[in-house]
Amino acid sequence: DLKKQFDSPPYSQTVELERQAEVRCHPPPGVPPPRVYWLRNGVPLETDTNLIVSSEGHLLVGQARLQDTANYTCVAENVAARRVSEPALLTVYGK
């Protein structure tokens, strides 16, 4: 079982170049608990040392880069179902 609504979907935000950012995602409750992963512009996100998914499923940006500007979508999935959030736009701007 996996509820349809995210407890708290990710929301769009703007971050200054080289600052930290956190795009939060609280997935819908489910049994078993869903696995959370992220899409970047519709493609599964390749994490790296600067883009990390926390144990809670939030997307952490260590130092925002201009190329990190994108639509990020939270996906929650278990054996029963797959739920996809609305995309959140992360905008990185220069100083």
From TrEMBL:
- PROSITE patterns tied to this protein: IG_LIKE
Record key words, sorted: Immunoglobulin domain
One GO molecular function term of this record is: cell-cell adhesion mediator activity
Name of the protein: Ig-like domain-containing protein
Q: Give the GO terms filed under biological process for this record.
A: axon guidance; dendrite self-avoidance; homophilic cell adhesion via plasma membrane adhesion molecules
| Residues of the Ig-like domain | 9-85
Q: Which GO terms describe its cellular component?
A: axon; plasma membrane
Q: Which InterPro entries match?
A: Ig-like_dom (IPR007110), Ig-like_dom_sf (IPR036179), Ig-like_fold (IPR013783), Ig_sub (IPR003599), Ig_sub2 (IPR003598)
Highest taxon of source: Eukaryota
Keyword Metal-binding assigned: no
Q: Which organism is it from?
A: Cryptotermes secundus
